[in-house]
Amino acid sequence: MGKIAGLAILIAGAILLYFGYTEYNSTASQVTEVVTGNPTDNTVVFLVLGAIAAIVGVGLMVKR
Prior knowledge:
Low-confidence stretches: none
Shape: elongated
Mean pLDDT: 92
Strand content: under 5%
Largest sheet: none
Number of strands: 0
Radius of gyration: 14 Å
């Protein structure tokens, strides 16, 4: 059961990372980054949550 949950969390993390990557390369994010020097808040949230979910998912899958 833990491996299935780990796989689901890993997939959710990968999806969040994908959305963060596409948001990072969007025109609105690039304009915001030029003006403020920082990416948009949505970009950071998607990338951070995606990375955390991916790490937790791998951890659950590897756990015996």
